[in-house]
Each structure stands twice: as C-alpha cells, then as structure tokens.
Amino acid sequence: MSIIRVAPPASGANTTVVVNGRTYSAVGAKAIGEILFSANPTTTHTITLDGTAIEFITSGATGSEVNLGGSLAVTIANLLAFIAVSTDAGINSMTYSFDGSVLKCIAAAGGTAGNSLTIATTVTGASVSGSTLSGGTATGGTLDVPGFDGDALVAAGWTRVAKLVTTATRPPVTDPQSYGVGSQRFDTTINTLITWNGSAWIDPVTGASV
User: What integer pLDDT is reported at residue 7 of this predicted model?
Assistant: First the structure.
C-alpha cells in the first residue's frame, strides 16, 4: 500500500474530512497530562490546574474547594462535579477524566499552545506527568495517509506533497518510465523531499544528488 503526504487547506469546510470512515483534520493534536494518585488526598492538599489551585477539605466546600470523600474515587467524583460547573478560565482550559487512579488533563483546544498549560499537586504520594501538558501539535502541517485516502483528500482540496518512499524503495534511476522530470517523493530515510531531474534524484533546494 502506498503512503502519501498531504497538507490540509488553511481554512474552509474541508479542513476536516471523513474518508473511508477515518477523520482527517487540519486541527493539531491536543496536549495531555496526568496526575497520578496513590491514595485519597487529605485536608489542605491541593491540585493546581493552569494556575488555579483547588483545595481538598473535610466538608463545607466553597469557592475553589472540594469536599473529600471516603475513597479516592468519591473524592475525584466530587472534583469532577466541581470542575463541570466551574467558570474559571484556568480550569476550563482543559477537559478531564478519571481512569483508575489517574486524572487525565487534556487541553480543550488542539495546537502547541496546550503544551504550556500547567498542572501541579501537593497531595502526598501523588505525581504529575510533567509541569506542563505535552504532545500538542501545530495546526495545519502535513499528514501521512494511505494512497487511496490521499486521492479523496486531494479531491476535497487538500494538497498532495509527495508519495513516501525510503532510500531503498525509490523508483530506480535505471527505469524512469513510470515518472517524469519534476516528479517528487518524500524520502523518509533521509527525511527530505526529493525530485527527479531526468537522470538522478536531487534535493530540490540545493540541486545536489541525494
């Protein structure tokens, strides 16, 4: 199966396209982080979500406080209920879910800006995956997709960059019948776009053989 590299349009209805049941989007990946709990928090412990501290207390929670439950699961349920109605910009910069003993914090929007969202905790035994979320990727950019999906994306207004090859699987220079001068491939072995000049594969920027 051939793989091609495509670039989405900068704007418009077709920045997100569903092809053969798969969704392709110009929107960057969302940054993610985790807070791992080893036990139920105790009173005065906090978690901080993008600069907003939330304190766990025994009862009577007000403001940015959350009541402790008899177990970690109940405490986190109370936390998620508090978050669900929060209007705080820092808290609402992320979305949250709880899996086992892990609070997952995901940037509300895709893109690299999510990599600067902070998480922290003073809960004894708890740890964070990092001081900030990570994994957010820029909007736009390119995607590597199966050739049959790529054809549909190009028809929807996406730009075909090049078919992906390795140095070992490039079309042979001794048999150029299936491609012409100016044909391009993206060589993943050397991470470079290459162009056929009629006798060799070259770097289109430098003109050097590659």
Answer: 85
Q: Which residues of the chain carry a pLDDT beneath 50?
A: none
- At 14, give phi and psi (nearest 5°): -95, 20
Predicted local confidence at residue 176, as pLDDT:
57
pLDDT at 127: 96
